[in-house]
Specification:
2 copies of one chain form a homodimer. By secondary structure, chain A is α/β, with parallel strands linked by helices. Chain A has 3 domains: 7-46, no CATH class; 61-161, Rossmann fold (3-Layer(aba) Sandwich); 165-290 and 323-330, Rossmann fold, CATH 3.40.50. Chain A has helices at residues 7-14, 18-25, 33-46, 52-57, 75-90, 104-116, 136-141, 165-178, 194-209, 223-233, 246-259, 292-309, 327-330, and strands spanning 64-69, 94-99, 121-125, 145-148, 160-161, 184-187, 216-217, 240-243, 268-273, 286-289, 322-324. In chain A, the strands form 2 sheets. The first copy, chain A, has a 6-stranded mixed sheet, with helices on both faces. A 5-stranded parallel sheet of chain A has the order 2-1-3-4-5, with helices on both faces. In chain A, helix 11 (246-259) links the parallel strand 8 (240-243) and strand 9. The first copy, chain A, binds a DNA duplex through residues 4, 6-8, 16-23, 25-26, 30-32, 35, 50-60.
DNA sequence: CTGAAAGCGCTTACAG
DNA sequence: CTGAAAGCGCTTACAG
């Protein structure tokens, strides 16, 4: 494999100066159409490949966006990441991705690496990290960083775009009450975390309004935890649950199947996020739709606008969510 | 935000030449310990950030690996991507990821973009594309490209690392036969594709050996397709199925639940991939374990070895897989 | 072990 | 509209 041709080679081949080639590369209107065509032909003839590192060095945009996700294996975040990456690709940006696996040490490493690579901006769904030292490099960099879906421990360090979790769990709880449930639990999520608190607050509000007692069962937001809880509370007095997430709800779904509890009849179950699977299990799972694909596109757009305008977004409203009622709460 | 300090600033601050700083950056043994310490102090004092674009320009490794995936929303590939990214991060590489969504046009765009960004190598799970023009840029680049999990249409264009799909479906079919099943279908996957053919071949072998008739129900490897098939064949003569993937099997799982068919009793169902969910649904789903996390680490290692040694890997053996029998085939 | 010099492939004013 | 020149922040021989 011989050396890649440079703009100088292209310039020679096209019989112009390398400045002209550079201008063509940037779609400058300064170049005559005919010249532009010549240059393009030369590029094709030589199999020219643009070298972005070189461009970046001279001050151009790197065309690289960092995407830092706390848990990439969770389908909710997978969908977010895939959609965001594709939206960014449509705008001509490549995405450097990293899973921090909820580990501040990893978060520190990967964000540092992204800064070294000269990303133009970052979309961050942070892991929890009390003093947020793991975000120091990002903060120092002065890069546009859009925080999404989860507020870090240190509060609003970066502009924050998220969903209206509170109203989501409120409508879920209200729906369960309307269906006749009286002993409704909130299942899953760790109680000291912002997302949990938000998702719980709507549930709490609806319950208090209806004069019903709260029942919070905290724990890892995983299928395994949900399954365990279902097996424990099956055939008990609890007659419904709002879950922290669909993963928890799907775990409960499996646990209740195992315990012979009929969803929508013996017990009413609502998830949160509305991942694809909800409509494809049986009985179908009611859930709070977050439309994460649209949310991801919105996030990408906010970041691109920031990048283009140079002005950081301020105080973004929470994106509305919507309860999708299915068999697990309304019966078959 | 002021300009980032360069090695020249660091050199001045530390009272050495910039060459020395560069050597420290590369952990060269040529530098005296004391000098190295001085330089490191200066870097810290100035908040120096290494500029990889500049380094790359002068010939150094970019430290960037491309990861091109046909369907990032599929949990099987998500697990692969997340594990590969983390293994690469451990080796100091950042990962540029792209979902091609089975679209050759997108594949062409994103691989081109990766080459422009100067990735050092690529891990590719290609989308199907008859003439593979979408991979032309990658081929021309001469970069190390490791193809994984799926052979492209044009056959072995790049070194290929994959799992022993054939023996997996063979042991699944044999297991079903041993459990007493006689009318066993192979469900899901498009028949003209290499992965489908491989995953089917083991099933075919086992069935022919046992003198049993084949029954192939092809289609999209999705939950929705599996569910539809289950609803169609429920309470029919078919008494077992080997599925193309867990997604198909989980769709069938839901469909059978809806149809009132008892898995492991009325019908024996085996999936393929053994994603986490298999052990967390009820009845638990038997599946062919691919241990995709280990596979991803292996793939990362093969690529890193290639990068370090400069020699392309040859003829890699298929990684063994293993049937995990659970309630859906053996009964509760 | 350390320094001075050249150069990687681009972009960006500045002339013309 | 196009060209000549400088320079982005590094690494890499080459001296010393």
């Amino acid at each position: 494999m011989t050396k890649r041709p440079t703009i100088l080679d292209v310039a020679r081949h096209a019989g112009v100066s390398k400045s002209t080639v550079s201008l063509v590369l940037q779609n400058s209107p300064l170049v005559r159409d005919q010249t532009r065509a010549q240059v393009r032909d030369a590029m094709r003839a030589l199999n020219y490949v643009y070298n972005r590192s070189a461009a970046g060095l001279r001050g151009a945009e790197s065309g690289l966006i960092g995407l830092v996700i706390n848990d990439l294996r969770n389908p909710f975040f997978t969908e977010f990441a895939a959609s965001a990456q594709m939206a960014l690709a449509r705008a001509g940006y490549a995405t450097v991705i990293a899973n921090t696996d909820e580990d501040p040490g990893l978060q520190e490493q990967v964000t540092g690496s992204m800064v070294e690579h000269g990303v133009s901006a970052v979309i961050l769904c942070p892991c929890y990290d009390r003093d947020e030292t793991s975000l120091a490099a990002l903060k120092r960099s002065g890069l546009p960083v859009l925080q999404v879906l989860r507020q870090g421990d240190a509060g609003p360090g970066f502009p924050f775009l998220s969903l209206d979790y509170a109203s989501g769990s409120e409508s879920a709880a209200r729906h369960l009450i309307e269906q006749g449930a009286r002993s409704i639990a909130f299942v899953g999520g760790f109680e000291n975390r912002p997302v949990t608190l938000e998702r719980m607050s709507g549930y709490r509000l609806a319950m208090e309004r209806a004069g019903l007692p709260l029942k919070v069962i905290s724990g890892r937001p995983s299928r395994a935890f949900g399954r365990r809880v279902a097996l424990e509370i099956a055939h008990g007095e609890t007659d419904a649950a709002v879950c922290f997430s669909d993963l928890v709800a799907l775990g409960m779904h499996a646990g209740f199947a195992e315990a012979g509890v009929r969803l929508g009849v013996d017990f009413r179950l609502a998830g949160f996020d509305d991942i694809e699977e909800c409509a494809l299990v049986w009985p179908q799972l009611s859930s709070v739709r977050c439309d994460i694909a649209s949310f991801a596109e919105r996030a990408a757009q906010v970041l691109l606008d920031w990048l283009n305008s140079g002005i950081a977004p301020v105080e973004m409203p929470r994106i509305p969510v919507q309860l999708i009622a299915r068999q697990s709460t309304t019966g078959p």
